[in-house]
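In the design runs reported in the main text, the only information available to the sequence generator was the tokenized backbone. The following block is the verbatim input for one such run; it is reproduced so that readers can re-run the procedure and compare outputs position by position.
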């Protein structure tokens, strides 16, 4: 049985030999599973990869789960949004995760988003004292973190409606 590191080396060699989008995605997915951030994980929707450590780690987890970053510091966001904030090093503090185009509107895509949000919420809940996550919002209204506090969102509210098709996370620092 080969290790993830060996699989990564094989995927890198395959991509270098025959560079295709599918081989790049396979290579990046293995990197993500190993927790190794690569700016190319942000290429699918051309988002700014200059984000803080919490966001980079979340990008790895999301990419490994089949999601892609859809926004970091760009796009239209509410005033005061973490998407508009940068730390002292000029790194963004928020990231949105969505689906590859072929999964948008599918049951599989909905499951990927819901499962990822659940796992991220469990990470927050189990590591509250040692966690830098300040926001988690997504399609599951009962698995929400706002300003470091677990909460629920009421169905039909503006904030809830804005996050029916993606998972949003923000990290301090």
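Verbatim output:
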């Amino acid at each position: 049985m080969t290790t993830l590191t060996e699989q990564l080396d094989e995927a890198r060699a395959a991509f270098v030999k025959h560079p295709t989008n599918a081989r790049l995605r396979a290579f990046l997915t293995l990197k993500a599973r190993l927790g190794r951030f690569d700016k190319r994980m942000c290429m699918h929707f051309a988002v700014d990869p200059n984000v803080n450590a919490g966001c980079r780690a979340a990008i790895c987890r999301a990419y490994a789960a089949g999601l892609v970053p859809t926004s970091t510091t760009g796009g239209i966001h509410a005033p005061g949004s973490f998407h508009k904030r940068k730390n002292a090093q000029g790194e963004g503090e928020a990231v949105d995760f969505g689906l590859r185009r072929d999964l948008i509107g599918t049951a599989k895509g909905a499951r990927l988003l819901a499962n990822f949000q659940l796992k991220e919420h469990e990470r927050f809940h189990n590591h509250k004292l040692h966690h830098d996550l300040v926001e988690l919002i997504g399609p599951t209204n009962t698995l929400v973190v706002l300003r470091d506090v677990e909460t629920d969102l009421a169905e039909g509210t503006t904030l809830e409606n804005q996050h029916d098709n993606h998972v949003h996370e923000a990290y301090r620092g």
